[in-house]
Design a protein that fits this description.
- By secondary structure, the chain is of the alpha+beta class.
- The protein contains 3 helices and 7 strands.
- The strands form 2 sheets. A 5-stranded mixed β-barrel has the order 1-4-3-5-7. The protein has a two-stranded antiparallel sheet with strand order 2-6.
- The longest helix has 19 residues.
Amino acid sequence: DINGKPFLGLPGHPVSAMVIFHFFGKPILKMLSGLSREWVWHQVKAKAKAARNIPSVPGREDYIRVKLEEKDGTWWAHPIFGKSGAIAHLAKANGLIKIGIDEEGLEEGEEAEVILL
């Protein structure tokens, strides 16, 4: 806190700021509003298949922005690639796919858990 007031610093790049706010800012606001611990950390998730290959570098945890689309009863996650300073990418994304630190990405058609934004 700063002078008794809660403070959350965010990265300067818009996309990075959105991801950090989603994982830290929203839970802090939920906690300050009096929600139970169970709901503070609750995230709405869905299953979707990768619409194309989604690469990732092992040794780093990545959160890939995706746009979900339903086609013939199947949800598809279309990756949105681009630099973290490109604000236009924020408007297109409605989910995030976490690529674990030991993973090399997802193959097209592979099912993944999507964190809904």
